[in-house]
Amino acid sequence: MSFRLLLPILAALLSAACTTGSAQVSSAVPAKPVSRIDTLLAQMTLEEKAGQLSQIGAQQMPTGPRVQAGGDDDDLRSGRIGSILGAHGVESVRSLQRIAVERSRLKIPLLFAYDVIHGYVTQFPVPLAESASFDLALAERTARAAAVEATAHGLQWTYAPMVDIARDGRWGRVVEGSGEDPFLGSAFAVARVRGFRGQPGELTSLLATAKHFAAYGAAEAGRDYNTVDLSERTLRETYLPPFRAAIEAGVDSIMPSFNEIAGVPMHANRPMIRDLLRGRWGFDGIVVSDYTGIEELKMHGIAATADEASVRAIDATVDIDMVSGLYSKQLPGLVRSGKVPQALLDAAVRRVLEAKERAGLFNDPYRHMDLARERANELTPASRALAREAGGKSIVLLKNTAGLLPLPKAGKTIAVIGELATDKQSTLGAWAAAGRPEDTVTVLDGIQRAAGANGKILYAAGASPKSAATRGIEEAERVAKTADVIVWVAGETEDMSGEAHSRSWVGLPGAQQALFDRLRKLGKPIVVCLMNGRPLAIPQLAEQAQAIVETWYLGHEMGNAVADVLFGDVNPSGKLPMTFPRATGQNPIYYNHKHTSRPPREAERYTSKYIDVPWTPLYAFGHGLSYTTFKFGTPQLSAAKLGPTDPLTVSVNVQNTGSRAGTEVVQLYLRDDFATFTRPVRNLRGFTRVTLAPGAAQDVRFTLDQEDFALLGEDFLPIVEAGTFTVFVGGSSDTTNQATFEVTATAKLEGEGSAIPRMLRTTSVAH
Fold this sequence. Notes:
Elements: H1 3-20, H2 23-26, H3 36-43, H4 46-52, E1 54-57, H5 65-68, H6 74-77, E2 83-85, H7 90-102, E3 111-114, H8 127-131, H9 136-152, E4 157-158, H10 182-197, E5 209-213, H11 232-239, H12 241-248, E6 253-256, E7 260-261, E8 264-265, H13 270-280, E9 286-287, H14 297-300, H15 306-315, E10 321-322, H16 326-336, H17 342-358, H18 371-376, H19 381-394, E11 396-400, E12 413-417, H20 424-428, H21 443-451, E13 456-460, H22 473-481, E14 485-491, H23 512-520, E15 526-531, H24 539-544, E16 547-550, H25 558-566, E17 630-632, E18 636-637, E19 641-642, E20 648-656, E21 662-672, E22 683-692, E23 697-704, H26 706-709, E24 711-712, E25 718-720, E26 723-730, E27 738-743, E28 747-748
Parallel strand pairs: 1-2, 1-10, 2-3, 3-4, 5-6, 6-9, 12-13, 12-14, 14-15, 15-16, 19-27
Antiparallel strand pairs: 7-8, 11-16, 17-20, 18-20, 20-23, 21-22, 21-26, 24-25, 25-28, 26-27
Helix pairs in contact: 1-3, 4-16, 9-10, 9-19, 10-12, 15-16, 19-25, 21-25, 22-23
């Protein structure tokens, strides 16, 4: 027997001696009990340890009758696989788990991971859409519902939430995140992490992953997988805060991004992962590579061989190698040769085993594999109701000339035009997990259901987003001629956004603009329902359509949610989480930009602007209309002067001045007027949803403190500098409703402060 196998026995004997020996021995500090993980680590071979760090895709596993009949698999039986990506469904995962825990030497259970992004069976609005709700309780509830369904189908781990800040709408993956603002992104990161995880140890707790660390959303030219080049200040102020917030919220794993930072690809970036993430921030969970990310270090040009790529990744403390197979093949030999310290390997294995213990798999490896529970967690009336609620809150009313919306359900003929109005797959959006298109309510379905027997609804497909062909336009024109109002569903199919779906031009694809031009000539009022996963440049629609509703991809209940808003059963309350440009060439565009030495002025030639389009956005961050109107009072401050660590209360009176009940998202922005380092023109520092009856008013209060006033100093630690600040409160980022106060002294803050927004620091937000 090897010394390694004797370690658990020796530890047990030592523990016994400590309890039965002399009085002198028994009075000493008791020996720390040997944990299950310690015992396993002592027993594992190098090959088994490397196996725990190796994840394979479901497509790499034996399939069909062989697995279902309990057929064996060499890699599982020999412990050379620690987790599986893409296998889901109780019968499938149970058959694989059985091999690992009943036929392998150490019987270590597998982790099953899947991309549960905006729902598992029930599809909720895509993350960018849900972020438009500015409703953190809603985000936690939908993530919780997704976790309940996913864990009922055999999963323990999701690769969500994506917390990348994105300022360039050309990048396809903006659809998976919360938009352009670090404060909003941090808030939604916390809400979703809490929703996925639930209460520690409970059956429905799903391990959550914050991705992609870091600055993936800053890809040059908005092109997925492209390089990133940015200053350390921008990295720390803009792209890192949502990751710190997710870690503070208890996220279980972090996924590195495909890009580099300061010349070092993230899958080998020791300063960012080992030193900052683990060292300075104290993250002790799993770092899991992105798909073949370790092998791709060779393509980056920093590793010539599989050995070199493996050494660079494990040295950076990337724990799990997703799919490429390098760790399982290379690590045992690298440890034996001394190129990788065994302690480094053991630390990574320990983190993986601890995650499995947190998931409860050592106590019951089949705890997520109950067929009865799986059958009970399909699409249900309750999950559909939540999806419909989320959809309604995620819709943004961009324009509504002369109160065209809401539409009456009867008395008018409505022509629904657009191929997207019946596109079930696009309704679900990208990364639809186990969601079935056949279960979706399309926009046409929803409008027809809402109008009922008394409504008259016509339909024509018109032009496709995927084709320049105009052959359907004539039929659409013929149908629309007989209608009183046109509801045109336009935008992108779901596979025009998402991973590997960046666009160089963000206007309306296909022949859709040609269709709109023909419809407009009919002289009928046109309501545009945008269906898309990114901000679109639509200047002609903004000028010529009577109403524009941003509906995104809303999931299974999209049609009902859209109809709720179009007919006024739901008063829209969504706000844009990303700026809409006038033209593609404005990208990247975002509200919290820096000052320039020559800010744009129309009358002065040598200022920062374009010669062909205005420099301003088409629709600003935070913009969103309602079927009612709101009036904001001047912000009232609890003090005109305060010390650097004193809190400040900002109060504003909000009144519903219209004839309908409605919900306004009250937004607070802060500007440090003069500082040692340049500051953004304003930063979001608070928001809340306020529902008011017609004529009703409410005082809304925000509290700001040192973490809101602080900037990063020369050492990149937070400091509050003496000087004046301007606070803005209103219904969007371009509000001019403001007040000024002064901080009277300078002070460095203790530590780095909390990255979690104040509204989320003490409690879960779901209700």
